[in-house]
Amino acid sequence: MGLSIPVSIPVSGAALRAGALEVVVLGGHLLLYPTGVCQEKVGAGSPTTPSSATRPPVLLLHGFTDNRSVFVLLRRALGAGGRRHVEAYNYSPFTRDLRVTARHLARRVEELCARTGQERVDLVGHSLGGLVGRYYVQRLGGDARVRTLVTLGTPHSGTLVAPFMDAHPLVRQMRPDSEVLAELAAPSPGCATRCVAFWSEFDTLMTPVGTARIEHPDLRVENVLVTGIGHLALPAHPTVIAAVRRALDGPGLAVAESSEATSVA
User: Fold this and answer.
1) pTM
2) Residues facing residue 261 across a β-bridge
3) How many distinct structural domains can be found in the chain?
4) Tens digits of residue pLDDT in 49-92
5) What is the extent of the structural domain holding 197?
6) Is residue 5 included in any domain, yes or no?
7) CATH code at 202?
8) Partners of residue 129 on adjacent β-strands
9) Does a structural domain hold residue 41?
């Protein structure tokens, strides 16, 4: 895939740069947030271009308390030049169970396939959105529809950050001892979906560091280490966006039988 490895950046300096970048991205996202509150309108006549017909459509899934506005830059890049049909799915802000959201996602995927004439789709999920996509793939038979699942800063093994938020049921489902994560850790023999998990050593919402990796013996996984980038910047940073594009262009990533680790600088 030609992903680069960072050279001699002091950890302290990289952490400061990542923190500064998070502040900038947060400011921009707050400005854009109102534009993504409503579900985007998609209809039976939503067009696809001839060049995108050879690639599965992409459905983007946002994270906890977020909306589709987080994908403004990623969406533009993925759909540039009519490369592929790209849509974003807003799940309800009142969601209390990601398993319910995964069932709603299943219906949206079926509708998208019928509308675009494609048999399979690609999913890209940021944070909680990645868990929703993974639950659909592993537990609801979604591997029959999903060619590639890309996750960005998703707590696949659970995160211990912000214990004061445990009152929210969705947060509890992202804890290491949750029923949902136990279901995802269960055997998934024959799962046909290719998984690409981007994780960052400076993602302060992933506690412990590395929980955004997918570690499962039955899944075809590529774990991609991102350097110098925090949680909020993952779906907006140009280097990550370029790597996501390459992953979806597949089979560019060499996915082995067991998990591999790659690095993005």
Assistant:
1) 0.86
2) 223
3) 1
4) 444 457 899 999 999 988 899 999 999 999 998 889 999 999 88
5) 11-35+55-264
6) no
7) 3.40.50.1820
8) none
9) no
